[in-house]
Amino acid sequence: MNCQLVPSILSADFNCLGDQIRELEQEGIQLLHIDVMDGMFVPSITFGMPVIASLRKNTSLFFDIHLMVQEPIRYISDFKEAGADSITVHYEACTDLDATIAAMREADVKVAVSLCPETPVTEIEPYLDKVDMVLVMSVRPGFGGQQLIPETLEKVRQLKEIRDQRELSYTLEIDGGVNRDNLAEIVKCGTELVVAGTAVFRGEIGENVRMLKEVIAHAS
Ligand code: DX5
Ligand code: ZN
Hints:
This protein has an eight-stranded parallel beta sheet. It has eight helices and eight strands. 34% of the residues lie in helices and 20% in strands.
């Protein structure tokens, strides 16, 4: 699988979100990263099901929902109903990750688990054969526009190695602090999906997407 750019709408202009999503579609974007924050697991609050449901009516893009929510098991079926294609929960936010994964399977969404920068890969190793995707946080979750923590790239390499060794098939995604200068190095670590908020939405969206895609193509 080639590496794909996944814009995070956290940095979009919410006043014209529909138009900005259309622009992304015109640039050939296929997945949209949607950050849901609850003010508990992370300090910020973003948006929830009603916003996602309303976006769902206007686009057929793949909705990659990143739940930065304490005990997300409570909301899996709601997000599915709102239009989620994949749901990412945080290892650190789940008392019972097995039950949370089971709820996601039951809801028939792609199952993804994320780990914060300070959580070692060994913590999620027992779950790797049960997930479709692993999201490596390259910043502390909660805010856009932070600087990538370089040590987190090692986790992508580690997860890729484990996947090969154990013949597993999860997709790798990285999220946070991606920009035109560090993107090539990130791609070379072997991730299939790269989330970018600020780097896509600050300035001219079309130009940014084309430039970031070009960097990916060169580095792949
Ligand atoms: C941070 C979010 C990210 C965020 C990335 O908690 O999970 O998806 O939108 O934003 P940038 O690309 O600006 O770091
Ligand atoms: Zn995110």
